[in-house]
Amino acid sequence: MKIYLDYAATTPVDQKVLNKMLPYFKEKFGNPMTIHSFGQEASEAVEKARTQVANFLSCDSREVIFTSGATESNNLAIKGLIKKYYLQNHSLKQKPHIITTQFEHHCVLDSCKTLEKQGMVEVTYLPVNSGGVVKVKDVEKAIKSNTILISIMYVNNEIGTVQPIKEIGKLVKKAKNIYFHTDAVQAINYFDCDVKKLNVNLLSLSAHKIYGPKGVGILYKKVNTPLSSIMDGGGQEQGLRSGTHNVPGIVGLGEAIQQVKSQSSKVKNIVKLRDYLIKRILKEIPGSYLNGSKVKRSPNNANFRFDSVEGESLLMMLQMEGVSVGTGSACSSGSLQASHVLLSLGIKQEQSHGSLRLTLGKQTTKKEIDYTINKLKQIITRLRKISGDVLKEFK
């Protein structure tokens, strides 16, 4: 049996999405920046996809910037805004201030840290509570006279906790000259991403998390939000993202985001299976804990930690049984370092190594969940016995 429970890392391309993409690899291969018929055909496809994304986000199509994915979108949002700020303000009395959280995706944290090291900004890294949720009051208290950007993810990629983006958006809207960015990669499938309701200036998303292709994403940039390009080239995407358009990928993104609208019945099934998974594991495996809030959580995410068990060992032994899961962000799960997300919850370093992320998708079945739980129980019993035997030898 081969089971995939790592949908937070990536998703398979939906057949309808693939069918829409295929013609743009061969028959309709034109460069959308050229003026002949092949180019115009490709350009029309790009603009159609842009409109599809804009309709989903409830924004103007001119506010949709195509990128290579959310990592680039997040870098462009943060570094591009700071670059523009310096270009517009030649005599700064103090550095611009950014507010973010301690458990953002590395591409956000590292973008902030890079700017910090370069002496360009000061950054406040807000804590989250034990449930993995940032407090709106903490955001409000952190705002200073030189604050220009707040960047907080919508749904955490490791533990799936949902942040109060709408409430923070209302707070930012009242403030003057502060821009609000959210990484919505893990939210698109399950939560309202109407940018007007969220009151965001910048929003990032990636196609491969919504049953679309890898290597394509968008940055929503609200009109009049200051932003400079961080990459030089041909000046595509209003001069903000140079490089020949990935037409098949962009077409796939447009179709994938269309498909999200018709997933409500499948989401209900995912929630049902996720709750069943959590209930059985917490009940049947002693020394098991759910990481993050059970209520303010993405419908497809279940992240556990287990006493006296290494998450990496669990992952490898489950893989041998045909079950593919994750231990954290797919971008850094090859690292043996403790998860910065779990550490931010106040979980001790040795405990954070025993974590396991199981994320469900629209193809997940109850049979797969039952099989996974049974194998997990057997493996944990075996690992704890080995651990106990080793400890006895040292006594």
List its salient traits.
alpha/beta; seven-stranded mixed sheet; globular; three-stranded antiparallel sheet; 395 residues; disordered C terminus; 12 strands; Aspartate Aminotransferase, domain 2
Describe what this molecule looks like in 3D.
By secondary structure, this protein is α/β, with parallel strands linked by helices. It has 2 domains: 3-10 and 263-394, Alpha-Beta Complex (Aspartate Aminotransferase, domain 1); 15-260, Type I PLP-dependent aspartate aminotransferase-like (Major domain) (Aspartate Aminotransferase, domain 2, 3-Layer(aba) Sandwich), CATH 3.40.640.10. The chain is built from 13 helices and 12 strands. The strands form 3 sheets. The protein has a 7-stranded mixed beta sheet, sandwiched between helices. Helix 3 runs parallel beside helix 4. The protein is globular and about 65 Å long. The two termini are 41 Å apart. The model is unreliable at 329-333 and 390-395 (pLDDT under 50).
